[in-house]
Write a sequence for this structure.
């Protein structure tokens, strides 16, 4: 499948405008997968711990320090940015296409006392309004699955990150060939949650280079992020439904979509998850 088209801009924005509060409640403030270590089980705060573990890995990958400036593409509600600021002393500018996320992330910055070090704005990565080389590093934390052209987005990020700066990203990837029937099933999964086409893990380094970046590392972390165990999935979905009760019909519908995607991924072992690092 290609690295091409995604859902219309407003559809993706609407999803996160409506569901950001729910997602952040169940994931401890972040809206991304977690990294599950060997032996981890689903229990109190397990999802939060796994989410924080993946954020910490991303922080390590971009190797920034005090006084440096980081672009957070698809910043969500600001929790990963907050963890980055606290861990490194760097300053963060987060961008998103969801006005609700801008408001929530901005309030998080104020509440943390770090509003002078983290800011957020409504911006489309496909047309970044920033000066060339104005950031020391960047990350795209599970934002590329929604983007209609991965190479174009990465070209934009490459332009605004200084020469030698690191760029870390996570993305869903195709890790094995698919039959026409499996491709059709994958397409249905993408449409149910406004995702664009999967880029293959094998193709990803080429996309990075086409964007004018140097490949530093490509890590297949599917086994630690996409849990394919049926018992885990059943427990996970039960936990989500219990937490969704106070959020009403919109959250209940979201859980239905999450279940469809999760069970679909459970069956489609050809879809994985990668953590990739590039250098500008």
């Amino acid at each position: 499948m290609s690295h091409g088209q995604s859902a219309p801009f407003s559809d993706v924005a609407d999803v996160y405008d409506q569901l950001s509060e729910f997602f952040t409640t169940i994931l401890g403030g972040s809206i991304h997968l977690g990294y599950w270590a060997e032996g981890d089980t689903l229990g109190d705060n397990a999802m939060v711990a796994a989410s924080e573990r993946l954020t910490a890995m991303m922080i390590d990958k971009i190797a920034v320090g005090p006084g440096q400036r980081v672009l957070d593409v698809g910043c969500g509600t600001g929790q990963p940015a907050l963890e980055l600021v606290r861990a490194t002393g760097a300053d963060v500018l987060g961008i998103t296409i969801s006005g609700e996320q801008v408001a929530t992330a901005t309030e998080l910055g104020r509440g943390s006392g770090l509003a002078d070090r983290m800011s957020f704005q409504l911006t489309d990565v496909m047309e970044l309004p920033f000066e060339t080389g104005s950031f020391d590093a960047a990350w795209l934390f599970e934002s590329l699955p929604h983007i209609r052209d991965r190479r174009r987005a990465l070209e934009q990020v490459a332009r605004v990150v200084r020469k030698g700066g690191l760029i870390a990203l996570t993305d869903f990837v195709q890790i094995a060939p698919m039959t026409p029937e499996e491709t059709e099933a994958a397409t249905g999964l993408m449409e149910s949650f406004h995702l664009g086409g999967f880029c293959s893990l094998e193709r990803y380094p080429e996309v990075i280079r086409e964007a004018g970046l140097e490949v530093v590392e490509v890590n297949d972390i599917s086994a630690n992020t996409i849990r394919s165990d049926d018992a885990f999935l059943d427990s996970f979905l039960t936990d989500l439904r219990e937490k969704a009760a106070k959020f009403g019909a919109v959250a209940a519908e979201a859980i239905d979509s999450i279940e469809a995607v999760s069970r679909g991924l459970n069956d489609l072992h050809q879809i994985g998850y990668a953590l990739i690092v590039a250098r500008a």
In short: The beta strands are 69-73, 91-96, 118-122, 135-141, 161-174, 199-200, 214-220, 271-279. DSSP finds ten helices and eight strands in the chain.
